[in-house]
Amino acid sequence: MYAQRKSSAAPRRNGYNRPVPTRLRMGLVMRRGMDFGELGDVEGALRAEGVGLAPISTGDASLSAGGVTVLATATAEDIADGRVKGLVVPGGAADEAGLAAVRSLIDLARANSVPVIAFADGVALAAERFGVPADSPGAVFRDGDVVEMGDRAALTPAVGGIS
């Protein structure tokens, strides 16, 4: 096949687009109007740290993002059974049914010592459920402690400590 080409060189692959191996799986709470606040879209940054994100539904309205239907691949049972090693809580719509579902997922994660990474208004929600003060664009809640993240650079060491 290469003999038919005018160039004698085989196709080259650049290593810059190589995916990072997944080292742990975290649940991503799907909220209507998901927002990561000042830190921007952190999903790519989390994947670059080897975190696989498994969407968790908080109701039928949460499963459509930007006209795309998202299939929930994790459940609350995965948190209780230890199949997810963390819970990512973005900001989002503040309807009562959705907030009740998010609160129950945060409570379940706290009860099972699963770290919670929260962004935007999800930080205040997680801080309320953990009973600790937090006022930053992002924060990691774990075993009653909170590590606040003021910028994206703080995400790498915060996620690196989760195993």
Largest pleated sheet: 6 strands, mixed
* Strand arrangement across the biggest beta sheet: 2-1-5-6-7-8
Radius of gyration: 18 Å
Mean of pLDDT: 84
Shape: globular
State the helicity in percent bands: 25-40%
Low-confidence stretches: none
* Proportion of residues in extended strands: 15-25%
- Count every beta strand, where a strand is a DSSP E run of 2 or more residues: 8
Please write the string of helix (H) and strand (E) elements. EHEEEHEHEHEEH
* Count of individual helical segments: 5
**Structural class estimated from helices and strands:** alpha/beta
> Termini distance?
46 Å
Protein model, in words:
There is one protein chain. The chain is an alpha/beta fold and 163 residues long. The protein has 5 helices and 8 strands. It has helices at 43-48, 76-80, 96-111, 121-130, 155-160; strands at residues 24-29, 51-56, 64-65, 68-69, 87-89, 116-119, 138-142, 145-149. The strands form 2 sheets. Strands 2-1-5-6-7-8 form a 6-stranded mixed β-sheet. Strands 3-4 form a two-stranded antiparallel ribbon. Strand 1 (24-29), helix 1 and strand 2 (51-56) form a beta-alpha-beta unit. Helix 3 packs across helix 4 (121-130). The longest helix has 16 residues, at 96-111. The mean pLDDT is 84.
